[in-house]
Design brief:
Blueprint lengths: L4 H6 L8 E7 L8 H11 E11 L23 H10 L2 E12 L11 E11 L1
Parallel strand pairs: 1-2
Antiparallel strand pairs: 2-4, 3-4
C-alpha cells in the first residue's frame, strides 16, 4: 500500500462495517493525520470487530513533499492520546502491552534496531 492509499480505499462508503478485523503492523504512524486513520478503522469494522495493532509511534510518511509543493503538516499524538481518540470513535481496549521487536532486521547482523512497540487489541462497541 502506498502513501495515501489507505484513506482513499477505505473511506469509500462500500467499506463501512465491511471488516471483522483490521490488523495494523508498523502502520498507523505513517499517517499525516492519525485521527483520520483511527476514524476509518472504526468505520470499516463491523460491530464487535477487532483492531489489532503493533508498532511504534515514530510518525513518518512516504513522499511527504510529493503531495504538494509545501511541507505538509502531520498530526503526531502520544500513545495516550491515540487511545483517547480510539475510545471516542467507539473502540474499547481489550489487551495492551509493550513488545520489544525489530523491523526488517538481519538476525545475524551486529547492527540491529530495536523498537519498544505498542501492541493492543480493541473491539468496536
Amino acid at each position: 500500500m502506498c502513501a495515501g492509499d489507505f484513506v482513499e480505499v477505505y473511506s469509500h462508503p462500500n467499506q463501512t462495517e465491511a471488516w471483522d478485523a483490521v490488523v495494523t503492523c508498523f502502520f498507523i504512524d505513517t499517517a499525516h493525520n492519525i485521527v483520520e486513520y483511527i476514524e476509518i478503522i472504526s468505520k470499516i469494522l463491523k460491530p464487535g470487530g477487532v483492531w489489532i495493532n503493533l508498532g511504534p509511534l515514530l510518525y513518518h510518511f512516504a513522499d511527504a513533499l510529493s503531495f504538494s509543493s509545501q511541507e505538509e503538516m502531520s498530526i503526531e499524538l502520544s500513545l495516550e492520546d491515540v487511545k483517547k481518540i480510539a475510545f471516542q470513535c467507539g473502540l474499547k481496549l481489550q489487551k495492551e502491552r509493550t513488545i520489544e521487536t525489530t523491523y526488517t532486521a538481519n538476525q545475524r547482523s551486529m547492527m540491529q534496531n530495536r523498537y519498544f512497540t505498542a501492541f493492543w487489541t480493541m473491539t468496536k462497541g
